[in-house]
Write a structure and sequence with these properties.
Elements lengths: L1 E9 L6 E6 L5 E6 L4 E8 L16 E9 L7 E7 L4 E6 L3 E8 L2 E9 L5 E6 L5 E6 L3 E6 L4 E6 L5 E6 L5 E6 L4 E5 L4 E4 L13 E6 L14 E5 L3 E5 L8 E4 L3 E7 L6 E11 L2 E11 L5 E7 L4 E6 L5 E6 L2 E8 L3 E5 L2 E5 L3 E2 L2 E8 L4 E7 L2 E7 L2 E7 L9 E6 L5 E7 L5 E4 L3 E5 L3 E6 L16 E5 L7 H8 L18 E6 L3 E6 L3 E6 L4 E7 L4 E6 L5 E6 L4 E5 L29 H6 L5 E6 L6 E6 L2 E6 L2 E2 L3 E2 L3 E6 L2 E5 L1 H6 L9 E5 L1 H12 L2 H10 L3 H13 L3 H10 L3 H11 L4 H11 L3 H10 L3 H11 L2 H10 L5 H17 L3 H11 L2 H10 L3 H10 L5 H12 L3 H11 L2 H10 L3 H10 L4 H15 L3 H10 L3 H17 L4 H21 ...
Antiparallel strand pairs: 1-28, 2-3, 3-4, 4-5, 6-7, 7-8, 8-9, 10-11, 11-12, 12-13, 14-15, 15-16, 16-17, 18-19, 19-20, 20-21, 22-23, 23-24, 24-25, 26-27, 27-28, 29-30, 30-32, 31-32, 32-33, 34-35, 35-36, 36-37, 38-39, 39-40, 40-41, 42-43, 43-44, 44-45, 46-47, 47-48, 49-50, 50-51, 51-52, 51-53, ...
Helix pairs in contact: 4-5, 4-6, 5-6, 6-7, 7-8, 9-10, 10-11, 11-12, 12-13, 13-14, 14-15, 15-16, 16-17, 17-18, 18-19, 19-20, 20-21, 21-22, 22-23, 23-24, 24-27, 27-28, 28-29, 29-30, 30-31
Organism: Dufourea novaeangliae
GO cellular component, one term: non-motile cilium
Keywords: Cell projection, Cilium, Cilium biogenesis/degradation, Cytoplasm, Cytoskeleton, Repeat, WD repeat
């Protein structure tokens, strides 16, 4: 960072100032001094960018006083002022104990409250972060906490202590009191003592008084996770940094000064400490006013001397770019140029504001061409540099990615890492060339040959890509040669990591030179790519930054005080150990690029420099920033300065690009083109002025004296506009513009001056002007051709509609291009409109698809001829959204039946797939179906397999799976109704199979079915309804028992004996025994018990229970039937019991009524279901029901 004094404001009557405070929100500055002096100032920054030639761009400097109000109310010396930024108030107090709260009303400050207790001197006042409470401490130990509306909340007298400072914690829950003896006491916000911060080292002495307690509130984020936020400043210059009040390892810093005040900046990244310290000046040591800046971790950043006798206080501006100091009877403003971590390459600004977040710090890659941003996150960014098309980030490594603590990431312009290197030493400085990255800690530096997509082919894995050197070593290149020749890589030189007495403090590199600066002022020069030390240069300054020009002939050096000097690198290169103060070279011409002598280079210096950048295409041009002015040095001679406060991005083609990083860092997400400023050097500005106001000849003479390709190109373009082809050609030759030379040769063959002007305008990019020339000549065709080359097809269409300028084919081509324009921007409605005009079906399909107008996609099939390749694309589109039938139609029209079948299979339209396979005689569909079904079954997806077979019209296979499912559910012995439904569904599928198969359709005998079906299929078809019948009668029997109809229940139970292969025999005969017992048919009951006792599958205990139950029943009742109704067999006319399912005489079987379960002796009056072919005794029994009791199909009457 660089600090310099920018403005001085004198206080009238030479009143001495004691305190100063800066409102960081509104910019008001309050100062208090002796004899009741209290003033409020408002210092505005000139941020306007309006000036002739753009010479004033965001000048960060104090300029105008928009307010200068003197406030009356104090009679004694004003000791403390503090702001309440939340409520736009401030409070002041004087040595007499008078406290006044001031408020802003209609642009002026007025006293709102006055407290005059005259009890003691106020030593400190602090508002809480929310602005609702103020704490006031008095020297005698009194503490008062009040509210913003003036009410006293609580007061306390601390006995035996003398207070010196007070501060709220950021959350407003704690209060810190600093004592005169150096102790710090911690209280809660109600005044209850909590603890004494004993970890702060306090030595008894007069200068141990605390002068300031500063606690950063964290409102703008933190620079690190463990960042100290509490700063305690003692008068003897000791500063203690603490992370919190429980920090047992605080950072203790000895500043070597007698401190007066300290304060944090707006982001908690810098602590300013002001006071006096002994400094050497004019050969003697005397106390000097200074302000020193430290990082939160105690690292010294910069010291600024301040004129005057005594500095009393300091305060930061809101954006942390300025600091105000009260010195004697003056207010000094110092501007701060921060060292942001940023770089620029390939039109991309890479930057970070170092605010830590949940993912670490955010590194933004801002493409300044299209104003887009990419973001990369890292734990911490240590250093950054760039070259060509890549940048390198030196970051702290994530422990999850490796044991190394740090990493080097080479990234492209969209934040994508293309190579990485993990290291164990801290990369404090980094420099990058097109081939290598050089990074250094205080003791070592690493030379790493990184890989990019372009040079990856040249970097083989066998070649060692990195090498670590110690700064105290003297590499000669021998080790690298040995390692290159050592194919087995058995030779490995040890790495020296010993701490150096003269550490590294900066470095810079080009393709063939590496300069390493050390804290003693020595610069070591190494050759690249073979690292060999070639020279040492001694300088008499503390090095801060080094930069090398484009041809490695000269280096610019900047020290910590902002002094810029030069170093000649093309002098006596054999002078290995120079002791000169300048550059270590003897005599001779400095750089071969100019006329400076070595003495001139040695004597050159510029003060107050905080940035520098060499031109990329001219080794004698250097741009530097001095305070808020930019100077361009040509041959060490400065040009006319340009007012600018931007940071230099690049210097090329006599143009300097700057970025206003101060604005960008305050709002990192607010990237806009106004933050990029392009400035021209004087020679470019003068050339433009000569060409406009004087003439080509004078301009040419000037350019010959100040040659540069950009100036010759400017001359050539100006000569072209005036049709001075000879001068233009000469200029194009000088700037090696081959395309321009070719254009001039072509232009010499054109004999129409108007046409020449049009061609020149088009060549120079003035397309509207060129078009106007063409139209004035009535050459619409040339205007159309120009616009076509530019891709401006909107204008092409306009020109064609203006008159005869193109054919229908050209118009269609233009419409196509406009459609492409809209399609590239995802505007599919606009694209569709123009593709329809151009009759481009291929592109229309894409538009319809993107707009989800699938009906139009399907209709396109009718417009396409057979075998058209577009049909295949249409089919894929339709299939992707599930429109199977339309996709199949497209494939059929295309002529690819296999793809049609595959589409049906993929979309699970198996019926259509089978139909297509049968129509086009494709045999493999059955195999594919079975394979897929087996896959589903292996994964336990039986229902999906059933659905698959059903959709493919493989009803018999689906029925088999349903029968297996029914048997599985029956084994659970739960929910018999569900089992019946499954059996019914299987039977219905079998009926569909029978009706759809011509070979077995209609009435068939078992023999015929055996000829057509295999044995298993025949059995399944023959017994299609047995399972449904079994569970139907089982459910019916239970219903009859519960209804008390025991006769019907027994008859149904007797019929259930036919289904012992489906139902459990134990269940059948238990039901039969129960129903016959309650029906008092004990003969039937006896037979049922005999059957139960003879079952082999029941356990012995159950068998004994059945025997005991039979004994109990039949000891009371003889085994004979009480009721014995008979009916006549319609076949043999013999009488049989009415419960018989078959005639004992002629074996005629009697079908059951599916409503009552009774055997039907005579089917003459019976009703038959048209679906399951089962019978009901009479049609009267189905009058009151809507569906068949067995198959549940709708009742129809025969």
């Amino acid at each position: 960072m660089f600090v310099y004094l920018s403005k001085k404001i004198a206080i009238p009557n030479n009143f001495r100032l004691n305190c100063i405070a800066w409102n960081q929100k509104e910019g008001y500055v309050a100062v208090g001094g002796e004899d009741g002096l209290l003033k409020v100032l408002r210092v505005d920054s000139n941020t306007s960018g309006s000036n002739s030639g753009g010479k004033s761009r965001n000048i960060t400097t104090a300029s105008n006083l928009s307010m200068n109000q003197t406030l009356e109310g104090h009679s004694g010396h004003v000791q403390v002022v503090t702001w309440n930024e939340q409520h736009q108030k401030f409070t002041s107090s004087d040595e007499n104990g008078v406290i006044i709260v001031w408020m802003l009303y209609k642009g002026s400050w007025y006293d709102e409250m006055i407290n005059n207790c005259n009890k003691s001197v106020v030593k400190g006042m602090a508002w809480s972060l929310d602005g609702l409470k103020i704490c006031i401490v008095y020297e005698d130990g009194s503490v008062i906490v009040g509210s913003v509306d003036g009410n006293r909340i609580w007061g306390k007298d601390l006995k035996g202590v003398s207070l010196a400072a007070v501060q709220w914690s950021p959350d407003g829950k704690l209060l810190l009191f600093g004592l005169k003896n150096g102790e710090v006491h911690l209280y809660d916000n109600q005044g209850v003592f909590l603890t004494k911060l004993s970890m702060i080292p306090v030595n008894s002495g007069e200068n141990e008084t605390i002068v300031a307690l500063q606690w950063y509130d964290g409102r703008n984020g933190y620079v690190a996770l463990d960042c100290p936020t509490l700063g305690i400043c003692y008068r003897n210059g000791r500063v203690v940094f603490m992370r919190n009040t429980n920090d047992d390892n605080p950072i203790v810093l000895e500043t070597g000064m007698t401190a007066a005040w300290c304060c944090w900046n707006s982001y908690g990244s810098l602590l300013a400490v002001t006071g006096t310290m002994p400094l050497l000046g004019n050969g003697e040591t005397k106390d000097t006013n200074v302000i020193q800046f430290y990082s939160p971790f105690g690292k010294h950043m910069r010291t600024l001397r301040i004129p005057g006798r005594e500095v009393t206080c300091c305060a930061w501006e809101g954006g942390s770019l300025r600091v105000a100091l009260s010195v004697d009877s003056h207010i000094y403003f110092a501007n701060i140029r921060l060292d942001y971590k940023w770089t620029y390459f390939s039109k991309t600004v890479v930057y970070t504001n170092e605010r830590i977040g949940n993912d670490g710090i955010s590194i933004t890659f801002w493409n300044t061409v299209n104003n887009t941003c990419c973001t990369k996150y890292a734990r911490a960014l240590i250093a950054i540099d760039s070259c060509g098309e890549h940048c390198v980030l030196a970051v702290k490594n994530d422990p999850a990615q490796g044991s190394e603590q740090f990493a080097l990431l080479v990234c492209n312009s969209i934040a994508t890492p293309i190579d990485s290197k993990f290291i164990n030493f801290e990369p404090l400085w980094v420099s990058m060339t097109n081939n290598v990255v050089i990074t250094a800690s205080k003791n070592n530096f690493l030379v790493w040959s990184y890989r990019t997509p372009r040079n990856a082919a040249f970097n083989t894995g066998k070649i060692k890509r990195e090498k670590i050197y110690h700064v105290d070593e003297t590499p000669t290149g021998v080790t690298e040669v040995i390692q290159d020749l050592d194919k087995d890589r058995s030779f490995e030189a040890p790495i020296n990591t010993k701490a150096s007495m003269d550490p590294i403090c900066c470095l810079s590199a080009t393709e063939n030179v590496l300069l390493v600066g050390r804290e003693s002022g020595m610069i070591q020069r190494y050759s690249l790519p073979q690292v060999t030390i070639t020279n040492r240069y001694n300088t008499a300054c503390k090095l801060y930054k080094i930069s090398i020009n484009c041809d490695s002939s000269r280096a610019s050096i900047m020290d910590t005080s902002g002094l810029l000097t030069m170093l000649d690198l093309e002098g006596d290169s054999n002078n290995y150990d120079s002791k000169d103060d300048g550059d270590g070279n003897g005599n001779g011409n400095g750089n071969g690029n100019g006329n400076e002598s070595v003495d001139d280079i040695k004597k050159f210096e510029r003060k107050d420099v905080w940035a520098m950048c060499w031109a990329q295409d001219n080794p004698t041009l250097l741009a530097i920033m001095e305070k808020t002015r930019m100077y361009v040095l040509r041959e060490l001679d400065p040009e006319e300065p340009i007012s600018c406060s931007g940071y230099i991005c690049s210097f090329q083609d006599l143009e300097i690009r700057c970025v206003l990083l101060d604005d960008l860092m305050q709002k990192p997400e607010d990237t806009r083109n106004e933050l990029i400023v392009d400035l021209e050097v004087k020679s470019l500005r003068d050339t433009r002025e000569l060409l406009v106001k004087v003439g080509l000849k004078e301009a040419q003479n000037f350019i010959q004296d100040n040659p540069h390709p950009r100036l010759w190109r400017l001359l050539g373009e100006s000569a072209l506009k005036k049709l001075d082809l000879e001068t233009a050609e000469n200029a194009m030759v000088r700037c090696t513009d081959y395309l321009g030379i070719q254009f001039i040769k072509r232009l010499q063959n054109v004999h129409n001056d108007q046409l020449k002007k049009a061609e020149v305008a088009a060549y120079l990019g003035n397309y509207d002007e060129a078009e106007k020339f063409y139209l004035d000549m009535d050459r619409t065709d040339l205007a159309i051709s120009l616009r076509q080359k530019l891709g401006d097809y909107f204008r092409v269409v306009q020109l064609m509609k203006m008159g005869i300028g193109g054919s229908d084919k050209q118009m269609e081509h233009a419409y196509n291009k406009i459609g492409e324009y809209y399609a590239e921007r995802q505007n599919w409605e606009g694209a569709k409109e123009y593709y329809e005009k151009s009759r481009n079906l291929e592109k229309l399909l894409e538009c319809y698809y993107k707009l989800e107008d699938f009906v139009q996609v399907a209709e396109t099939v009718q417009q396409l001829p057979d075998k058209s390749p577009l049909l295949k694309r249409v089919a894929r589109m339709l299939a992707s959204v599930g429109m199977c039938s339309q996709a199949v139609a497209a494939y059929i029209k295309y002529g690819d039946v296999k793809l049609a079948v595959d589409t049906c299979v993929r979309l699970n339209h198996w019926d259509q797939a089978v139909e297509l396979a049968k129509t086009y005689k494709m045999a493999q569909i059955g195999e594919l179906l079975n394979k897929y079904a087996n896959h589903l079954l292996s994964n336990g997806k039986r229902l999906q397999a059933i659905e698959l077979y059903k959709k493919a019209n493989y009803n018999l296979e689906a029925a088999k799976l349903l029968l297996q499912l029914a048997e599985e559910h029956a084994s659970f012995r739960k929910n018999p109704l569900r089992v019946k439904k499954i059996y019914v569904l299987a039977a219905l599928l079998i009926e569909e199979h029978v009706n759809s198969t011509p070979a077995i359709k209609g009435t068939r005998s078992n023999i015929v079915m055996g000829l057509v079906e295999n044995n298993e299929d025949s059995r399944v078809i023959e017994n299609a309804w047995r399972g449904a019948e079994a569970y139907h009668f089982l459910l019916m029997a239970h219903r009859q028992i519960y209804a008390g109809n025991f006769d019907a229940a027994m008859k149904i139970a007797l019929r259930l004996r036919e289904y012992e292969d489906i139902l459990a025999p134990e269940d059948i005969y238990c039901l039969l025994a129960l129903s016959s017992a309650v029906h008092r048919s004990f003969a039937v009951c006896s037979k049922a018990f005999i059957k139960l006792e003879s079952l082999e599958v029941i356990p012995e205990t159950t068998r004994e229970e059945y025997e005991n139950l039979a004994l109990d029943v039949f000891t009371k009742h003889s085994p004979r039937d009480v009721r014995n109704s008979k009916a006549e067999c319609t076949n043999c006319e013999s009488l049989v019991p009415d419960w018989c399912v078959a005639c004992p005489s002629c074996s005629t079987r009697f079908p059951a009524c599916i409503v009552s379960g009774k055997p039907l002796m005579d089917l003459g009056n019976a009703w038959t279901c048209t679906v399951c072919k089962h019978h009901v005794a009479t049609e009267r029994d189905v009058v009151n029901i809507n569906a068949c009791p067995l198959c549940h199909s709708t009742v129809t009457y025969m």
